[in-house]
Design a protein that fits this description.
Number of domains: 2
Largest sheet: none
Helix content: over 70%
Radius of gyration: 23 Å
CATH class of the largest domain: Mainly Alpha
Order of helices and strands: HHHHHHHHHHHHHHHHHH
CATH architecture of the largest domain: Up-down Bundle
Shape: globular
Distance between the termini: 16 Å
CATH topology of the largest domain: Growth Hormone, Chain: A
Amino acid sequence: MASPTQEPAFSLFDNRPVAPIQWRALGLCALCMVIDGLDVQAMAYAAPALIKAWGANRSVLGPVFGAGLLGMFVGSLVLAGFADKIGRRPMLIAATAWVALCMTVTPFASSIGQLIGIRFAAGIGMGAIVPNAMALAGEYSPARIRVSLMMAVSSGYILGGVLGGGIAAVVIAPFGWSGVFYAGALLTALLSLSMFSALPESPQFCLLRHPGTPRTLLLLHRLAPDAAMPVSPSANKPLKGNALAMLLGEGRRIVTPLLWVANFANMLCAYFLAAWIPVLMSGSGYSSNKAVLAGTALWLGGLVGNFVLGTLIDRRGFAVVLLINFALGGLAIVGISYFHALPQAAVVCIALAGFCILGGQSGLNALAVTIYPTRTRATGAGWALGLGRLGAVLGPIAGGQLMGMAWSVDQTLLVSAVPTVVAALAVGGLGRIQARRAQPPSSSEREFAVEHNTSIPLDKKA
């Protein structure tokens, strides 16, 4: 479902076994996602101990949680695109180092205001990590299994959340809530140092920005020792202009907004479910343990969805798989609303919703990487993810507003299914655009292009 670009396909390693350098790059990108998931959940895991230590009301931590997500929104829009100028590698190293620093100073906060400021600063760094880790993972993946590998890398986010819970269970008793952040800072700093010594730069970026240099030729030789080295064409010179103009250019003035809508709607639903499923299930008569297990089922479903959907997309394409996926996600949420009083049926529906909504978000992240060419890939993925983060901020808030209006569990859940319909419609629109581009231009369009000395419209494929 990628939009047409002037960039030729990079096929140096598409028909080869995955080389060790590729596995190394993919592994480090996956660890970036693990760190992102760990940091996002760190405050949630530390919160009970922090509330007890400070004697604070739990409601005051709401802005602290929101500050991190807001920082990620800013970082995705403002910083992620710098990688299109300086490279994926330095951006990932700098962003992880910054997050490590922020996690180190978090325990020194002595007020809610200071916590908000630190979490916002950490979020800015995290906002630059995910788009660039996904872009680099896509650029090191063979075309035949590209989406599968990118979505496997995305699974690191969920694993990071699980890892954070395990770390919290071990360190809070001896070290208090501060131990969560010290442990996270240590792991993040180690990853930054590992990337400094072992992470290769994107081969496509090197061809685009540093063609013919010894460093680029050495990298390409390590990827395919016996292949003829590709030459970066002049059409791949970096674009000039602001980020918005680049993202809407080259026939993407409809594609890019549809991608934004899909990300916003799906993250709105995903973070609503993640935040409120345990609360809603508890309100339906579940014990605290069962309510937590219900929330865990959501994430486990998402983990399975990452791997299954990746394989399906590689075989069938983004449009049909994601359209059906989001439609099923909406039905799963409707199922939760009807069966919330029946534990077994509710957990099955929750797991299916996680499969479709959380797994579908990884699919959207991979889609953003395929839509944009190398010179705007990090910018495009960053903006799509950043605008999606707005939905992540608003989802929990919307749930709180609905419960504040005394809505029932089933009514609240039914409303939360609406964003999945919006995401399905947006993906369907992207699919229709792709279908139009697959058709050859008409004779009248060719005649117009010749008569006016212009190119065939980008909505058609020559």
